[in-house]
Amino acid sequence: MLRLIKATVPRDVDGAPETEARDLAKETELDDRARAALGGDSTALRIFLGGVVPIVRRVCRGVMGPGNPELEDAIQDCLIEVARALPQFRFEGRASHYVTKIAMRRAIACRQRARALSQQRSTLEFSALPATTFDPALEARADLVRNLLDALNEEQAKALLLYVMLGYSTEEIGVITGVSVGTVKTRLRLGKEQLRRWLERSGEGRRAGR
Q1: Cβ–Cβ under 8 Å, residues 86 and 47
Q2: CA of 94: how far to CAs of 26, 46, 91, 158, 187, in Å?
Q3: pLDDT, tens digit, 9 for 90 and up, residues 147-195
Q4: 16 Cβ partners below 8 Å, 6+ apart?
Q5: Is the dihedral of CA 176, 55, 143, 9 positive or negative?
Q6: DSSP class of residue 110?
Q7: What is the model's pTM?
Q8: What CA–CA distance (Å, rounded) separates 102 from 122?
Q9: How far is Cα 146 from Cα 165, in angstroms, rounded to an integer?
Q10: Radius of gyration over alpha carbons of the chain, in Å?
Q11: pLDDT beyond 70 at 75
Q12: Please, is 21 exposed, middle or buried when counting C-beta atoms within 10 Å of its C-beta (0-12, 13-18, 19+)?
């Protein structure tokens, strides 16, 4: 059976309140930078974009894979898209969530474009691509999930990427994607079921169940 392991960040239990306070301070600072950037000052925009680079890079690495030759181009494309989309931000949520939403959409488009170009250069079809076997290493699982995500519809893919690869909670995914928690859970369930069927058809399910 396919088991998707959610990425988690180790937390210091004793220092949890301090960690939450630091995270809140970072979120607030990024919101303030977004407001300043909306004032039309180019320097403020550069400062804001510099502050969101870690978010954009994390999203792109999750979608594209850390070794993807198109990764840096995807990061630049995402930053450009964030700058273009910033005037539409109405501060109904956190700036970090808005940036994640924009970067996710653009990174998926970059991945699809890179995949299309790769298929043009090769006569291999998706079903003929080398199978990726399960490995205890997290990155091996992550790479398998990335490959399988191409078989999903975009909304299911986004939900799985945000949950499995980037470690967001269902509540946070709801905020980022603009849907209810119930819808997020449905997308995750349907996505997992479709991935499981894909694994079974490709033979990976039998190997994973050993």
Answers
A1: no
A2: 11, 19, 7, 18, 23
A3: 666 777 788 888 888 888 788 899 999 999 899 999 999 999 998 888 7
A4: none
A5: negative
A6: H
A7: 0.69
A8: 30
A9: 9
A10: 18
A11: yes
A12: exposed
Question: And the tokens for 140?
Answer: 């091996």
In this predicted model, what pLDDT tens digit does every residue of 113-151 receive, in sequence order?
Answer: 877 766 665 544 444 434 444 344 455 556 666 766 677
pLDDT of 156 reads 86
- Cβ–Cβ under 8 Å, residues 2 and 10: no
Inter-residue contact 24 to 73 (CB < 8 Å): no
d(CA 204, CA 133): 7
Inter-residue contact 145 to 164 (CB < 8 Å):
yes
- The pair of three-digit structure tokens given for residue 58, joined into one six-digit string: 């994390």
- Which residue in this structure is represented by tokens 């979120």? 27
**Torsion, CA 61, CA 63, CA 66, CA 68, rounded to 10:** -130
One-letter amino acid identity for 55?
Answer: I
Would you say how long the chain is, in residues?
A: 210
165-174: long-range contacts at Cβ-Cβ below 8 A with a sequence spacing of 24 or more?
165/7, 165/62, 165/63, 166/7, 166/58, 166/59, 166/62, 166/100, 167/6, 167/7, 167/8, 167/9, 168/100, 172/97
